[in-house]
Each structure stands twice: as structure tokens, then as C-alpha cells.
Specification:
single chain; about 280 residues; alpha/beta; Purple Acid Phosphatase, chain A, domain 2; five-stranded mixed beta sheet; four-stranded mixed beta sheet; about 15% strand; globular
Amino acid sequence: MAVYAIGDVQGCYEPLRGLLDKLEFDPGKDTVWFTGDLVNRGPKSLKVLRYVRDLGDSAITVLGNHDLHLLAVAQFPRRLRSKDTLDNVLAAKDRDELLDWLRHRPIMHYDKKLGFALAHAGLSPQWDLTTALGAAEELESVLRSSRCRAFLKRMYGNDPDRWSRKLRGWQRLRYITNCFTRMRYCDKHGRLELTRSGRPSRRDRRFMPWFRVPDRENKKVRIVFGHWSTLGPITDKNVFPLDTGCIWGGSLTALKLSSKSVKRISLRCEQSQKPR
């Protein structure tokens, strides 16, 4: 039995199937984790959603910002953007079943036996593991409840930018959402900087990757994440980025996980969209 983690698929169905074939993935005995962003920007979001859903308990996928965006535009069509490729999902006969399945996916997954956490963008520098799991549960509860539509209406925005246990209501949920699904950069105090998306630069020391914030509370947790296709190779301990830009003509990457080691496997991808 093997456990694999795969980076952002974003509607790239053929690369996903090709990578799983390369891994010799057997859903009867193996498990595959997805870092989120199953959909959008790539050409076949509908096929990806149906395929991953049909893997049943053999697949664990956390929600990414594009997955939440799909849930939002299903409720508020004016939120659709010019580069979105979600029309086939929104027009599908089984759309409601797929969206209901999607909103019941976890925000974070933690395997105590393997010693790995899975999140789309990462964990807030102010969160220890217990706090992170609690924050994920808060957001999951809302997404799975009758408050889901109200939350999706208020989800977008960059404030607040720093964690506080005193945060309440929609602001608390927005911060949790941004950390788990949009975060890349922070300042040295752990404040989110959500307008930056490029590769880290040594020239600008005001902002740093979230996992390099001094005294990060979760630095002993091994974290698998996606979301940051421009990050490039890193050697930081206990962080394992998996978004290697499949839709931009990069690759789709998997890790074979064990409690003692990881093995990286990649498949080159044809470009589906031009980089932003």
C-alpha cells in the first residue's frame, strides 16, 4: 500500500491520468492526496472532478482557492473571470452532486501515522498543529451547512491580515480561508501579503515565504502544499511544495510519502494557458 500526494491539477485530466499510470497507482490498495485546485484554468475540470470523486476513499483532496471559487460562481455567476474554464462544470447535469461533494471536502488533512499535514497554500505562521486543525474544522463546518452561501458571498478580500484568537464572524472565516488557500508571502511578523505571487527575491526583504517567518509555530510539522507554481526548488526543512505549473507548461508532480522519506515523481505537461 502506497500513499502519494499530487500537486494542483487545475482541470488537466490527461496529465493526471498519465502521472497516476506512471506511479502504477492502484485505487484498490493505494491512496492519493491532492493539494487542492482540482479545477479551473485547465481544459477538463469536469472530467477531473468526476474522476477524483469516483475514486472514493482512495482519494483525499483538500480545497484550494479555485475550488472555492467554483462553489462561489455557482451561487453568484457575476464572479466568473475571463480566464475561468468552469462552464462545463456549471452546465453539467450532475453539477449539483459534484458541487455538494466538493464542498464536503476537507480544508486540511493530517495523517498522524505518516506525520504529514496537507493544505492547499500552507498553515498560518501563528498556528500550531492543534490550532490549524481547529481552524480547518471551523471553515469545513460552515461550508457544509446552510450558511455556505452567505459565507461564499463574503469570502473574497484580503483583510484581516493577521491571526488573532479574538477574530470573530466572517472576518475570522476569511482569514482562515486566505491562509489555507491563498497565502504565499508574509512579513516578519506573520502578516499576510496576498498581492504578491512571484518567486522569492533576495532584493526585497520586507516579505518572505510563509514558511520562513521567524518562530513559525508549525515548523516541526511536515507540510505538503500546492498553490505556488513560481516558488521553484527549495531546501527548507519540513515543507514540500507540489505545484510545479502543470497548466503553464511545467509538470504535474507527485510525492510518494512514508514516515521516513519522500520520493518525487513528475510528468511533463503541455501548456494549457499562458502564465499570468
